[in-house]
Structure formats: structure tokens, C-alpha cells
Amino acid sequence: MKATPLSNCERRFLLRAIEERKRLDGRQCYDYRNVRISFGVDYGCCIVELGKTRVLAQVSCELVPPKANRPTEGILFFNLELSPMAAPGFEPGRQTELLVRVNRLIERCLRNSKCIDTESLCVVAGEKVWQIRLDLHLLNHDGNIVDAASIAGIVALCHFRRPDVSVQGEEVTVYTPEERDPVPLSIHHMPICVSFAFFHQGTYLLVDPSEREERVMDGVLVIAMNKHQEICTIQSSGGIMLVKDQVLRCSKITAVKVAEMTELIQKALENDQKARKEGGKFGFAESIPNQKITAFKMESAAVDTNNLEEQAEEIITKADPPAEVFTNPILHTPGTAQIGEGIENSWGELEESEREEVVEEEDESEAAGFEDQKMETEETSTVEKTKNEPIVLSDSEEEEVVILEPQEPPKRTRTQTSSKQENTSKKTFNKRRRKKRAAY
Amino acid sequence: MAAESGVAAEACVGQVVLPGDLLLLPAHPDEDGERLRLGTGTAPRGRLLCGPGLRRCGAGLLVTKCGLLRHRQAGSGPAAGGVYWVDSQQKRYVPVKGDHVIGIVTAKAGDVFKLDVGGSEQASLSYLAFEGATKRNRPNVQVGDLIYGQFLVANKDMEPEMVCIDSNGRSTGMGIIGQDGFLFKVSLGLIRKLLAPKCEIIQELSQLYPFELVLGMNGRIWVKAKTVQQTLIIVNILEACEYMTAEQRKQALAKLSGN
């Protein structure tokens, strides 16, 4: 199938927006999209989602005779495939320039950087070595395939376990996973690629271009770096002329981004390790959320939703029981009533990871949650307070006297809490989470 | 083929139906002489409209798309009987005759423009199909321009053909879409929701900023507002409307208009 062509007005609009430093999804120029890493049941299988770009990585190993000129080293094999389900323009079996370029980048990033110790893959010198094969499949193309693929590749390699081998004289025994625990690969460092897209002859630069932005860019610079700030690969394509300080600036940005990304990867690997050790559930069925077309759920650019399920479970188990609902408002004066007591402002304590915002614009949802919090602060209270105690009004900014029509708003807030279970809207669910935290 | 027992169509309204389901039409008692009675083996004629997702088959309607079955009484009179159709979620567009869509010009081949409308084939549009176009006075269309037109011919056997004028020769809003603004894609269900009369979303959005909006039935929306920022906000809200409930949308808009 042919790819949808880019119309002139889209191109013009995107370039104008970039001149004004605005991106389509509301990110800043140097912001990455959400990265979510989920692991499969097998070792060495993972899916990385960078925004909507999805890459599946799978590592496998095999015992083979080594290459003639390197008898003591294992063999690494990397392959990336652009699946036709990723974009309408991808056809199977056709070697496009994009495919060749991405493959070469991934190879250089992972092989030439010597991040994997190939000597440790040798079993019997000159006869048997491990061949490690990394297969990457692009499942959805929303821009920046290189970054997503490099993250998926290195995560899968770190996650992979090969069968344990023992050599006694001439005999080589390969143990099954049941006999002996499989052994991880020996990885020295984690190189990660960061892409920079240039526009208007190098005047403007964007990190992590989305698919639309990639279509209008002049060229791209890819820097692969590890967390020790060593550049493993650097490549500029598209024929742009880059000045020295531009490249230096990009490398500084890369250092920051790679540090964040490496931390994220470590956390994800640890979480998965913990889940497996404790006998908890792991695998794609657990970590990839059910996507229903009828569910009101949407991701936003500003949220780290990595391993959300685990965090959510933790929070729910640790949370206090839901607050009592006070059915009768206290009428101070005609037209003014108060339900429950006010509490301390806990807005500042909310962690980034728990704030799941539905609307893409950060401001909108912050204020949407803000309004909701305002309405609901009146309602929450600690467990055993009674109505007759002196009312403690905290000096939080959000507290305002809410003019209520008699009876109506209490009903509304009451039904919200009582229909907690039925409500499938994730946003209201999260708001309730926020409310629970506010009750601490 | 095994004889499938069909279900009465009236019983399924508002429920999920799957492709292959057979819906039996109710046999009307012969009160009104003008109503046609369902004979054995004869397909029902005339009064009942069979909408998208359904196909006439023998004694009833065969479902071809999965979704919710809907029904609307057309009102009393000789054309009573109503419409049945299936509300389904879809992103991929299939050209239908009479639909108004936004197409992107991909090629100019002599007298004819080739447009991408999101279907399996590119549509063709003759340069004479614009209002006031003659052989001397050709419309100024470049490759990459956006065109809002309707399908004259659209079936599975032929290449779709589009025109930018109606049967009287007037453009009624169709034609080349202006240079600025932004084009983006949403699901077909959202477009239908937005095109419904007195759509809340559009009304609420118009309270925010003035903007121009073109909705194509192929899932493409073109928006233009005064500044880039406003356009981006409208684009994001419309894309998010797919997943937001009415309350969430009102809150989001309230926040924006308070700004």
C-alpha cells in the first residue's frame, strides 16, 4: 500500500509551529515521549513503547562453530524488520533505504561499541561458541524507530538468560533451565541512541521526532551513548550541514537523556526480576494493559506510566480505607453549606507517577483535577471525626466556600463514591486515588 | 449451508450484532393497504431502509459489520418503516457514493487529478468539476493541496470519482481548502458524532475561539484558527474527544476558557 502523502498545509503548519517552538503533542523541544517497557514470559523478550511507536525484541541463542578468523569469540546477529502493520507504506520483502539505515545504526550501536562480551560466549575454542541473535520487529511506526529499537535491543539483551554450560575435558554439557538456572549475558555497558531532527536548515532542533515531524525534517543526527558519557556511534543523515557547537550541544543533551533512560531501564529490569522471584505474575498478559475501544482512557505526554500496574497495586494496598460519606451538610447560613471538614493541602506531595492525566494538554488536566479536588476536598475527612467537633479549616488555597443548592451537590458527590466499582472511566478512578492520598 | 435461525430485528436494536447474524424483519399485519407484506422468499421492498453494515438477504437483513444495531422510525406516511443500521467503530475508510471527504492531491494527469482519500484506490477528480471551471479557466490546484468534494461514483468494482460541484453546478462549500490550518485524522465514529446536528462538542468549542472546520467522512479533519497555539489546542481536544466523557471535556474546556 502507498503511504498517505503529506499535504502542503500540514507541512507548512508543522514548520510554522516549530518556528514558534510548539510541537503537536505539547512537548518541549528536548522532551522525550513516554517510554514503557514490558517483558514477556520468556527471558529476552520485551516490548518497548516510545509514545505510540512500538518495537518488539526477542533474543535467542544457539551453539554454532565460530568464525574462522575469530575462534574464541561468540557471534552476534542483529536484525530489524519493519512489519507491514507498523505503517501503510511498509511492504514485506522490500529493502527500503529506511530499513537499511536503521539496521546499520543498530548494528553499529550494539556491535561496534562492544557492549556485549563476546569472549564469554565461547564454549570450546575453535569448535563451539554461542550465537546470540537479536530480532527486532517494529509493530507501530509513530516516529523515531531508531531510539525505540536501540532501547528494545539493549533491554532484551540485558534481560536474556542463556543456558548454563560446563566443559569437562572433551565433554560439553548444556544444562536445561530446569537443571541449572540460565545465565545472563555479560554486558559491559548500555548504549542508547538518541535522535535529533533538524528543521529550517539546522536552525531548530527537536529531540525524539514523531512521525509527522520526521516527514518535514531536513535531516537527523543520531548519537549513541552510554551512561558513562562515552559516545558509541554518531551518524548524521539527510545532508544537513551541522556546526561544531550544534553537535556538542546535542551530545550534552544526549548525556542527560541517556542517564534518564538507563535509570528507567534498570528499574524496569529490577521490577521484572522481583516479580519473577516472588512468584508474582509476569509476562505481556500482565504488563500490557487491555486496550478496549469502549474504555475512556488516554495517555498524556507528561506521565511516566512505566509499570503502572505494580505501582497501582502497591498504592491500593497501602491506602487507607475510603473516607466516610457525610450525608448532611452543615448549614451555616441559607445558601451556604459545608460537607465534612476541610483538610491540609497535600497537593505538593503527589508524585509524578500517580498523576495520570487524561487530556494531552498538561494545564487542562491539572486544572481539571484541580476543580475536582476543589469539589471533593469538602467531602474527605479522616475516619472518626464527627460532625459536632470544631471544624478545622486549613489555610489551603484550594478551599473555598462552595455555595450549594440544598441537597443536590451532596447527592452528586455521594453517587460518585458509591459507584466507584461500576465506573469504568479511568480518570475518575485516578481522581479517587488522588482523593485517598489527600486523606493521609 | 445450515439454516440459521434469525432473530427479530426489533429485539436486537441497541445490542451488539456480529457479521453473519441474520435479522428477521417483522411481518406487518395487513392494516394499511399500502404496506407490503413479507411474502415467503420475496425480499421486502420499499419502505424499509437498510443502512451501513447491513445487507438485504432473502427474508431479512444480513449483518456485515460488528457493532450496535440502531433503528430510527422515519415517521408516519407512505415512507414509514424506518431505517436500520449498524454503528461500528472503524478507522479505515471505504468510499461510499455521496460522502463528502477531504482528499490530498497526489498527481496531475492531464485533465484529471488523482486524490488520496484514505481508501484502497486513489480517487479521480476532473478539473472541470469545480464551480465556474471551463477549459480556459482551470482551477489552480497543486500537488499536495487539500480538496473537499463528494463521491460521484464509488463502488468496489471501479475507481472512485469525485466532484466538487453538486448536480446543479454549485459548489456548496466544496472545492480547494485554503492554505493554512492543519489536517489530522480521527476515527470514523467521531466524525459521525461531530456531524450530528447540534453537536455539543462543536458548540462548546466555538465558545472558545473562532475557528474554521472541515470534516471529511474519511476521518480527516481540517482546522484553522487564528494562531498556531489555538489550532493545536483545538486539534488536541478533537483527538481527545474520542476518549473523553462529556464531563471531562467540559472541565477541560472550562479550564481553557478561564485562561
TrEMBL record, chain A:
**According to the UniProt record, where is the region Disordered?**
349-440
Q: Which CDD domains match?
A: RNase_PH_RRP45 (cd11368)
Q: Which PANTHER family would you find in this protein's record? A: EXOSOME COMPLEX COMPONENT RRP45, EXOSOME COMPLEX EXONUCLEASE RIBOSOMAL RNA PROCESSING PROTEIN
| InterPro entries the record matches | ExoRNase_PH_dom1, ExoRNase_PH_dom2, ExoRNase_PH_dom2_sf, Exosome_comp_Rrp42_subfam, PNPase/RNase_PH_dom_sf, Ribosomal_Su5_D2-typ_SF, Rrp45
GO cellular component terms given for this protein: cytoplasmic exosome (RNase complex); nuclear exosome (RNase complex); nucleolus
Q: Where is the composition biased (Basic and acidic residues)?
A: 371-388
Mind listing the UniProt keywords for this protein, alphabetically?
Answer: Cytoplasm, Exosome, Nucleus, RNA-binding, rRNA processing
Q: Which GO terms describe its biological process?
A: exonucleolytic trimming to generate mature 3'-end of 5.8S rRNA from tricistronic rRNA transcript (SSU-rRNA, 5.8S rRNA, LSU-rRNA); nuclear mRNA surveillance; nuclear polyadenylation-dependent rRNA catabolic process; rRNA catabolic process; TRAMP-dependent tRNA surveillance pathway; U1 snRNA 3'-end processing; U4 snRNA 3'-end processing; U5 snRNA 3'-end processing
UniProt GO molecular function: mRNA 3'-UTR AU-rich region binding
**Pfam families linked to this entry:** RNase_PH, RNase_PH_C
Q: Which family does it belong to?
A: Belongs to the RNase PH family.
Biased segments, Acidic residues type: 349-366
Domain Exoribonuclease phosphorolytic as annotated: residue spans: 32-163, 189-253
Q: What is this protein called?
A: Exosome complex component RRP45
- Where on the tree of life does the source sit, at the highest rank? Eukaryota
Compartments reported by the entry: Cytoplasm; Nucleus, Nucleolus
Composition-biased stretches (Basic residues): 428-440
From TrEMBL, chain B:
From the UniProt record, list the coiled-coil ranges.
Answer: none
User: What molecular function does GO assign, one term?
Assistant: RNA binding
Q: Which GO terms describe its biological process?
A: CUT catabolic process; DNA metabolic process; exonucleolytic trimming to generate mature 3'-end of 5.8S rRNA from tricistronic rRNA transcript (SSU-rRNA, 5.8S rRNA, LSU-rRNA); nuclear polyadenylation-dependent rRNA catabolic process; poly(A)-dependent snoRNA 3'-end processing; regulation of gene expression; TRAMP-dependent tRNA surveillance pathway; U4 snRNA 3'-end processing
Which keywords, in A-to-Z order, does the entry hold? Answer: Acetylation, Cytoplasm, Exosome, Isopeptide bond, Nucleus, RNA-binding, rRNA processing, Ubl conjugation
Concerning Pfam families, the annotation shows: KH_6, RRP40_N_mamm, RRP40_S1
* Recorded superkingdom: Eukaryota
**Main location as per UniProt:** cytoplasm
Tagged with keyword Translocase: no
Subcellular location(s) per record: Cytoplasm; Nucleus, Nucleolus
Q: Where is the K Homology domain?
A: 181-229
Q: Which GO terms describe its cellular component?
A: cytoplasmic exosome (RNase complex); nuclear exosome (RNase complex); nucleolus
Q: Where is the Exosome complex component RRP40 N-terminal domain?
A: 15-89
Q: How does it assemble?
A: Component of the RNA exosome core complex (Exo-9), composed of EXOSC1, EXOSC2, EXOSC3, EXOSC4, EXOSC5, EXOSC6, EXOSC7, EXOSC8 and EXOSC9; within the complex interacts with EXOSC5 and EXOSC9. The catalytically inactive RNA exosome core complex (Exo-9) associates with the catalytic subunit EXOSC10/RRP6. Exo-9 may associate with DIS3 to form the nucleolar exosome complex, or DIS3L to form the cytoplasmic exosome complex. Exo-9 is formed by a hexameric base ring consisting of the heterodimers EXOSC4-EXOSC9, EXOSC5-EXOSC8 and EXOSC6-EXOSC7, and a cap ring consisting of EXOSC1, EXOSC2 and EXOSC3.
Family according to the record? Belongs to the RRP40 family.
Question: What protein name applies here?
Answer: Exosome complex component RRP40
| Species the sequence originates in | Ramphastos sulfuratus
